[in-house]
User: Fold this.
Amino acid sequence: MKFEVKKVFVFLPLIAALAACGGGGSDGDTAVNANVGTGNTTTGGNTGTTTGGSTGGAAGGTTTGGGATGGSTTGGTVTPLVTGAFVQATTPRFAVVGASQQGSGQVRSIEQLPVGGIVAINANTLTGTARAVEDVTGDETFAMGRWAKGDAMFGGMDSTVDQVPSMFHYVVYNALDAFPASGVEVCDAGKFTTPTRTSGLGADMGQAMGSAALTFGANGAAVDASITVTVAGQVKTVSTTGHTLPSPTASLYTGNYLNDGDGLMLTTAQAAGGKHRVVVGFMAVINGSKYRGFASFTCGQ
Assistant:
């Protein structure tokens, strides 16, 4: 088993990200294609990726939600799908994944709709009169969702989001300012974007559930995570234990996540009430079809 932690951010085809194995780098944006939008705006910066790891293991936790685009309206008032609008802290960061694209880095600007969906992250945007953001969830410390319909700009490339393989998943979060010196934390059942098919001939969507744990120590933050994806009765669990993030802005990639195979992306973040967050990107291959999504777990002692 091997893994690598590094800090980079350039927009490149997903397969090309594998060439990054074995190097360090400087803080910046990391990506592999992009998308378009409008709402609230704010400003921010850039950072890291990593590679390696393991798959397998057992699952636990909860199932995915759904998520409407516009929330509900009463007398012209929009009902948000989040408990609060995302507020950028010292180091706001993001990650976005599509069918053959992915990107991560520091947030320099965002646009959040009143309902809570994010439609612009830096130059990556979702626009169009019929645009739709689903699986919307979040609070003042993070925002997560899925671009389900519209005109997308991601990594400088335009695309039409009109079918499941063309959708993008996103998560925006605030990196920790520093790791605690020590501590073992239990995480909640998590929130998930609906796993969507990026390739193959399987069902368009599935369900996700999972678990996570977080341990702080002298070497950084050790993360355990397990995600189970169920599609049309077929189940795949992707998990990892004990991988350590050396710094608050580091991300870790396990298995074949960067090469369209089973694997996870792991990082840590702030959560409301002084708690911590484990952010997980997941890729699961079921009967030859590939499914992607994001998960967020709130952790505390």
Q: What stands out?
A: The chain has no helices and 23 strands. Residues 3-66+84-300 form one domain.
